[in-house]
Write a structure and sequence with these properties.
With 326 residues, this protein is α/β, with parallel strands linked by helices. It contains 15 helices and ten strands.
Length: 326
């Protein structure tokens, strides 16, 4: 059965971050992932506090190998797993500009960094003493004090090489563009070694089921989101290659109003689940059946505990409807 999770961006005070995770469990969500945004609330302090206030929901950071050494990440997630009674998940990403730029860190060789991070983290979770050297990460006689760990590693992927890496090395892959799911999953499958099990398929969406959630989104939000998307995803949304090139040129030249002209309501509808709650349920049911999805995640990226708790209840109702045939 399709599971439900929240992707929480810690834009609220830390006590509200913890209360939001507690509310997610009370509402009935299966997962809550917390973004490691560097200079926002510390992801592991907040998750540790939430672990002690919850008993069922699975918890994990969305982190990267640039701002934290993978050995430190392995230790932190293992500690969270211990505190939560075995409920931890680790989600690795390539690292975005909002996280890396304030620290003066350049995102170099992201696929290699994620691959080496997985190698080091998994090796340390064996409980053995590890000496290992890659192009970006090294450990010398490192051994976890928590002992062996069985913790899933998920990877958020968009580009072809990262998608193949997820198929080859991850326990789960998170995808984010509705129109691109077929192409993205084909690339994931290319990375799966012969006879190996495919990673869990997790779909993250900017779910919009009320008019106030998508009115004006094309010009205010998606112009920036789409700029970071690979050409494959933009082409899947219905843009031609000439339009993709013109969109990027306009954005990079600082003429965001010209770039926004390419992000029509039709483009937005192809990218995300958007419509009435019933329409969103029907679309999610169809995607789950077509692509054998294991979990659906939605964003929580604004403060307001009561409002976010209500959104969780509404999304759960949409997902519950999608789980059942009419």
């Amino acid at each position: 059965m399709l599971k439900l999770g929240a992707m929480l961006i810690p834009v609220m005070p830390t006590d509200e971050v913890v209360e939001t995770i507690v509310a997610a469990e009370q509402v009935g969500l299966d997962y809550c992932l917390l973004a490691d945004e560097g200079l926002m609330s510390d992801v592991y302090v907040a998750l540790g506090a939430a672990a002690l206030r919850t008993s069922r929901i699975r918890l994990g950071p969305v982190t990267n190998g640039y701002t934290r050494h993978p050995a430190a990440t392995a230790t932190a997630i293992a500690t969270l797993n211990e505190l939560s009674g075995g409920r931890a998940i680790g989600m690795l990403v390539a690292g975005g500009s909002m996280t890396l730029a304030p620290l003066g860190i350049r995102r170099q060789a992201p696929v290699e960094m994620v691959a080496e991070s997985i190698e080091v983290i998994r090796s340390l979770w064996s409980g053995e003493s590890i000496t290992w050297s890659g192009d970006h990460v090294r450990v010398d006689g490192a051994q976890l004090g928590t002992g062996p760990q069985q913790i899933p590693i998920w990877v958020a992927a968009r580009g072809p090489r990262m998608l193949r890496l997820a198929g080859r090395s991850a326990d789960g892959v998170m995808l984010e563009v509705k129109a691109d799911l077929e192409s993205a999953l084909a690339l994931v499958d290319e990375g799966v070694a012969g006879g190996a099990q495919s990673p869990d398929r997790i779909y993250l969406d900017r779910l919009a089921y009320r008019p106030d959630q998508y009115q004006g989104s094309a010009s205010k939000v998606f112009v920036h989101v789409l700029m970071d998307s690979p050409d494959r995803q933009l082409l899947s949304l219905g843009l031609s290659q000439d339009e993709v090139d013109a969109f990027r040129t306009a954005y990079r030249s600082g003429r965001s109003e010209l770039a926004a002209a390419y992000v029509t309501d039709d483009i937005v509808r192809r990218r995300q689940l958007m419509g009435t709650p019933a329409e969103c349920s029907d679309m999610l049911r169809g995607l789950t059946e077509q692509f054998d999805l294991d979990a659906f995640f939605f964003y929580i990226k604004s403060p307001g505990l009561d409002a976010n708790t209500q959104v969780m209840r509404e999304v759960l109702a949409i997902v519950d409807d999608a789980r059942h045939d009419r």
